[in-house]
Design brief:
5 helices; mainly alpha
């Protein structure tokens, strides 16, 4: 554990508050979270779900993910492939 800590601090001397750490590992995830709440917050998601607007939900989720790197490439492809079918979003 001490070895891993030393290695981490070599890359990020400021620890979890290091500007490089924030840039590489945290800020983009926080921005995606904020964007998610703007486009698909809990209340709006529930309303769309009750209206069975599955494609709209998936489209918004993909719009958020497209600007970040939250999913593996094969997961992105699976979502896009599913949306090609009329019932895929469900």
């Amino acid at each position: 554990m001490a070895r891993s800590r030393r290695k981490f601090l070599r890359f990020f001397p400021g620890g979890f508050r290091d500007p490089t750490y924030l840039d590489w590992e945290l800020n983009y995830k926080w921005n995606a979270h904020q964007r998610w709440n703007e486009l698909l917050g809990f209340t709006e998601y529930r309303e769309l779900l009750q209206k069975r607007k599955f494609t709209e939900i998936a489209t918004r989720a993909l719009k958020i993910e497209a600007r970040t790197n939250l999913l593996f490439s094969f997961e992105k492809m699976a979502i896009r492939d599913a949306l090609k079918s009329p019932t895929g979003a469900r």
